[in-house]
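Q: Can someone sanity-check these two? First one:
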Amino acid sequence: MEVLQLKNVTLTINDNHILHNINIDFWNGYVHAVSGPNGAGKSTLASTIMGLEGYREIQGDIIYQGENINDRSVDERARLGITMAWQDPARYEGLTIKDFLMASAKIKNEDNIRDVLASLSMNPQQYLKRALDKTLSGGERKKIELASILVNEARLVLLDEPDSGIDVESLERIFESIRLLKKRGTTVILITHSLAVLQQADHAFLMCSGEIIDKGEKEKIVKYFENKCIPCPHKNIPDEWEPAVGK
């Protein structure tokens, strides 16, 4: 069953066509990946789904659990159960990590918050009283944002480049969290150009120049990484280009 559907979604910003006639079905409880090169439109697609300012004037329809949410604000979409972890997480000067996570939590229970931090290799005793500010590294802020998603128990989670600024050990913790979200029945959409992140998905879409050009099980989309490129409508594709598959 589809939890989220994009039907003929087109986005134009300052006369530039950013997304072109996007048609995607995201299945409930699956881990999906939207993959492709930098500049393909992946993060723009995520921002459009989330309903960020500047990304809501679209053509087409965004259907969440059978309801058109085109006119819904970010806050309204969040209340419906849609949330997003940014590639560069925000800072909140003056707010402690404990207060931030408690505000996000569906169940206001400090033990639950401690368990989630520990699952991300973040010592609760060390982090709960720290401020969510510039003293934290990008990797720490990313894990705290993921912790807020875990305690929030959202139904649809968008993770924009979850491996950005993360060391190998922390990345494996994030992968464990993705598996936990799936186990809970959460639908996860991974926005990525990383093969390691793509491998965490059940199903994937390949994006190029604002269009979905391929889809299928992750093994099918992995060929993009093996061959660096596949036939697509990108304006910079050389005339003499030939696919590497089979060579």
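And here is the second, same format, sequence then tokens:
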Amino acid sequence: MEMKSTKILTTIIMLFLGFFMIMPFLWMISTSFKTPNEVFQYPIQWIPDKVTLEHHMKVWTGKESFVTYYWNSLKIAVICTIGATFLSSLAAYGFSRVEFKGRNALFMFYLSMMMVPPQVLFVPKFILFDKVGIYNTHWALILPGLFTIFGVFLMRQFFMSIPHEITESAFVDGAGHFRIFFQLMLPLAKPALATLAIIDFSWHWNDYENALVFLLDRDLYTVPLGMQNFILEFNIDYNGMMAATSAGIVPMLLVFLIGQKYIIQGITGSAVKG
């Protein structure tokens, strides 16, 4: 009886904390349907007296619409996610299943690069991209986005949790590394692949700093950069910003809902060996 009461109390506390954390999200959606005068009303009026779709229409129509920005963000995020997931898996297979001298030392050196702040690389990346002619193009975001140290680490840890007897049996049957990777390891790594894809998609969809540094033309802007349109000379269009943000969060929610069942399983599996 005492255990049941504790469980009920814990559930109530978690529900309260969950509702408390989701309040900013609810305020964002509510504000997107309000008039400018109602934004900072106190106490907060969660359901406006007069619901207006003006701000949502402004996001999708007219010369200042976000359609181009959403398309740019979606293109960059999808290409980077697919490429980073595949390349991370391939590198992780090499670090976990291919025996060569200095493998662990090389992996630790590679992993140490995570300690380098990405802001430190802005200047050398700017010079490099300008020299090769990809500055102010989406390639300046896509090419670096195809490689992720965290992705290699995550996939390697998952591959290490798979018994070596499985791959050794495949070797005995005459399979090579590429066949083992594509037909054996990748199907087993679906939880980790889904987890990495969700995390990587979120990173690139919300990337503001790289887009700010490497993109100049407005027609190349991504959603985070497009939010600057709502910062006017003398005020901020909070209603329009919240409407654009509400629409911008939809792709991340869809990606999460599609792969949510793999997240806990993937992270847990990756932590088995380390």
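A (reply): Looked at the second one. The chain is about 70% helix and 0% strand. Residues 270-274 have pLDDT under 50 and may be disordered.
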